[in-house]
Amino acid sequence: MAHLVLVPGLWLDGSSWDAVVPALRGAGHGVSPLTLPGLEAKDADRSKVGLQDQVDAIVAAIDAAPAGESVVVVGHSMGAGLAHLAVDARPDRVARVVHIGGFPAASGAPLAEGFAVDGPDLPLPDLSTFDDRDIADLDEQARSAFVARAIASPASLTTDPVRLTDERRYTVPAVMVCPEYSVDELQSWVAGGDLPEVAAIADVSYVDIDSGHWPQFTRPTELAGILNEQASIADTAQRPGPSDQGER
């Protein structure tokens, strides 16, 4: 089976995947929902946590996946940029990467450039500052729950630049899950040159999901179905066929 490494976006820990994980494990896949460095608690010391620390945590989870299991790295929002960095570090171990509401970033700029920080913390902005399409399917109860669970991310994510080094990352199949924007919109951004890392990947597929920016909260069953399908594809692609196994 496959092993899914789930990377949350800003302000969220591993529990943000709780509504998705049971269906993945129920399908027989291994699952590692990550709480990244600096997100262990609301009062965690984030002053010494950098971008590389978060990437290293994802790479460690990839390395810890059982031998023989196809590794699928799943990144949500800014976690997509982190996932891409992890693929860059382990292109021979990752069978597939899924980006949900986020994109691989090119070298040079920080992943979270432009967000306001408070000392070592990058706090959740007021939800009213998000685009309407991001939060349209979050009712008042869901919005309150999101704010209550939110944990500041490390402020270093607004300053530490992305550094990519291994072009074999482009050989790892990528799946772009499109929540608050459509497949057509994303494909137009890629064609227009806005997402050069996506354009350079040899095998990219696109999947729509009718949700706002956080489908793990509002469409967990549908999202789990998408992830299970991608995990099965990765597992089948890596499993030797009869011609690979020789005569029996």
From TrEMBL:
Instruction: Indicate yes or no for the key word Glycoprotein.
Output: no
The superkingdom listed in its UniProt entry is Bacteria
Q: Name one GO molecular function term.
A: hydrolase activity
InterPro entries registered for this protein in UniProt: AB_hydrolase_1, AB_hydrolase_fold, Sec-Metab_Biosynth_Hydrolase
Q: Name one Pfam family in it.
A: Abhydrolase_6
Swiss-Prot/TrEMBL keywords: Hydrolase
**Record's protein name:** Alpha/beta fold hydrolase
Q: Which residues form the AB hydrolase-1 domain?
A: 4-224
